[in-house]
Amino acid sequence: MDPRLLEILVCPVTRGPLTYDRKAGELVSKQARLAYPIRDGVPIMLADEARELSDAECR
């Protein structure tokens, strides 16, 4: 994930910051409790495509 891209991307639900989870290949919004997938190097920034985070993942 290009760090410059991560600086400008925000969660489409909360407009808050995202963190990159390299291991899972996702962009994570702890505020929205959602993880957005990255497919073929392209972040999929659709709430319908995101998975919900568990309580443990939000800590």
From TrEMBL:
SUPFAM superfamilies per record: Trm112p-like
Gene3D superfamilies xrefs: 2.20.25.10
Signal peptide per UniProt: none
Xref: InterPro entries: Trm112-like
Coiled-coil annotated residue ranges, if any: none
Pfam families recorded: Trm112p
Entry's family note: Belongs to the UPF0434 family.
Protein name: UPF0434 protein V0U35_01520
